[in-house]
Amino acid sequence: MAAFLNQLPIGLSIGAVLLLIALGLTFTFGQMGVINMAHGEFIMAGAYTAYLMGGLLPALPVAFLVAGVMGLILERAAIRHFYGRPLDTLLLTWGVSLVLQQLARDLFGAPNVQVPAPSWLAGGVGILPYNRLFIMGLAVAGVVAVWVYLTRTGLGRRTQAVVQNRQLAATSGIDTGRVDMLTFFIGSGLAGVAGVALTLIGPVGPALGTYYIVDAFLVVVAGGLGQLRGAVLAAVALGLLNSYAEFWSDASLAKVIVFAVIIAFLQVRPQGMFVLRSRVLT
Amino acid sequence: MIKRHLPFATVAVIALVAAPLLLEPFRLGLLAKYLCYAIVALGIGLAWGQGGMLTLGQGVFFGLGGYSMAMYLKLNEAGPGGLPDFMVWSGVEKLPALWAPFASPVFAVGMAVLGPVLLAVLLGTLVFRQRVRGAYFAILTQALAAAMVILLVGQQGLTGGTNGMTNFFELFGQDLADDSTQRGLYLVVASVLGILYLATRQLVHSRYGRLLVAVRDGEDRVRFLGYDPALVKTVTFAASAGMAGLAGALFVPVVGIISPALLGVVPSLELVVAVAVGGRHALAGAVLGAVVMGYAKTAFSEQFADGWLYLQGALFILVMTLAPKGIVGVVGRLRRARTT
């Protein structure tokens, strides 16, 4: 029973990290139809920012900015020429991701580095270690911030309009290009924050992003495109499923089980938990 | 008629006659390896170029084929009642039941193709029936590739873990280290590729091929016309999986190793990129891309290992932005520019 309960904070914190990563993906994917494989490298950039700065709290805003600006550059320099060709963006951004990984290897060396955890995060309450709690808190803060942004600010409402119907939004006078830039900035920034969070539970290496990007995309698929609620539920579910599948079977079967569960889930809800209703037909 | 078949005939003569005569055994072996990849790429060209299904998990099917073949080779060398070397090292004492039937070469080669086909039919039926498509499908196939690698690494006693299986000595009674065996294998690989290429081209030019392109360009409209797009896609996906499986089975005796690193997310994506570089809309482009990228990888990573990733990354970015139709597209454009 104790072992069973111990998996809970692990699963929840993995879910929290996945959520921070998937928030950016679900909006870039849902709003622009972009599959950004380089998103994983923004996580890595955030983690190395924490490594360079050595402090957890000051690293958070800086990592957000670093990853956000990287995303902004990627969007402006390359991705915006690819709107409407989602599968091409996947290959393009994979190329970017390869370059960024190699760059990290040249800058920081191939071996993993460790970021010392701050002393005030040692220990915990009951079965909840403070570092895992901190990560969950970070994800909650991220979701609240995104929710406030989307529903309470003018820019956020415009973002929602573009997600729901790009053409109609554009004809209503919304500068969709600006909205796209901003979405990319915020989404990539959140990946940077996720990277800082990851330094609390493991070492940092050039391939850090590749371990999370596939799962984060599964969150998007299971949660539904551009859906905040869906991303939250799917991320938590996937985090828990991952950690409990490892607990009940073994680590090597866990991913296969997760995959099977997702395929089974798509039989019931092919477009994810929440679907944006539209009458558009391809 | 003759003119239409001339390019293929020329390439076939070069591949089957000139290459074995002119290339030293080491280079011929490398070419055989690229041609194995070209078989996988042909399947990707069919599924993605013609059918619009971006499959990022062909490594899974390639791996199923490769592991089937490797299991047969290992059992054959261990002899009746013997255990493969890696099982002895990892402390397995009894041959696992999963392995037993692979002592038969017919079963092993059959499974190398049938296994991937069955998995693709299962996945395709579940996914395409629910109208899961486009990027969703790509993500799911990628997740499958990731899961497969973790499974293979974890089941050390069954699969050889991270190291996979290597040290193969004979195939159907032939010494694998012998140059003439390797030359024979090369000829088999080249012939299989040629036959599959012709068959796939025939398929693409048939009514079925038109339907496939129609599904790619407007799946809902095809459905309104009374066809079943899910069936069309599943059949194509299964065909491409079968090709990848066969390529895997050929790859093992040619290269002499199969391991999880050869079939994960990255190798699967690399082949898709090779198809993009060659030209996804033409089957010849897929084959060409696989050979060119295979050669480039060997040539560049021999000289500067670190630079290769930069180069590869930069290459994709350039190809995707400047020449989305790949080499075939560029050649076509040049040819049109000359005639007009």
From TrEMBL, chain A:
Localization terms from the record: Cell membrane
Membrane as UniProt keyword: yes
Transmembrane segment boundaries: 12-30, 50-74, 86-104, 133-150, 182-204, 216-241, 253-270
Entry keywords, A to Z: Amino-acid transport, Cell membrane, Membrane, Transmembrane, Transmembrane helix, Transport
Domain of life: Bacteria
Record-level GO cellular component terms: plasma membrane
GO biological process per UniProt: amino acid transport
Membrane topology: Multi-pass membrane protein
Xref: Pfam families: BPD_transp_2
InterPro entries named among the record's database cross-references: ABC_transp_permease, ABC_UrtB_bac, BCAA_transport_permease
GO MF term list: transmembrane transporter activity
Protein family: Belongs to the binding-protein-dependent transport system permease family. LivHM subfamily.
Entry protein name: Urea ABC transporter permease subunit UrtB
Annotated source species: [Actinomadura] parvosata subsp. kistnae
Automatic annotation (TrEMBL), chain B:
Transmembrane segments: 6-23, 35-64, 106-128, 135-154, 243-265, 271-296, 308-331
GO cellular component: plasma membrane
Keyword Cell membrane: yes
Highest taxon listed in the record's lineage: Bacteria
Chief location bin: membrane
Gene Ontology molecular function terms on file: branched-chain amino acid transmembrane transporter activity
Topology class, membrane: Multi-pass membrane protein
Keywords: Cell membrane, Membrane, Transmembrane, Transmembrane helix
Subcellular location: Cell membrane
Pfam families attached to this UniProt entry: BPD_transp_2
Protein name per Swiss-Prot or TrEMBL: Urea ABC transporter permease subunit UrtC
Taxonomic classification: Bacteria, Bacillati, Actinomycetota, Actinomycetes, Streptosporangiales
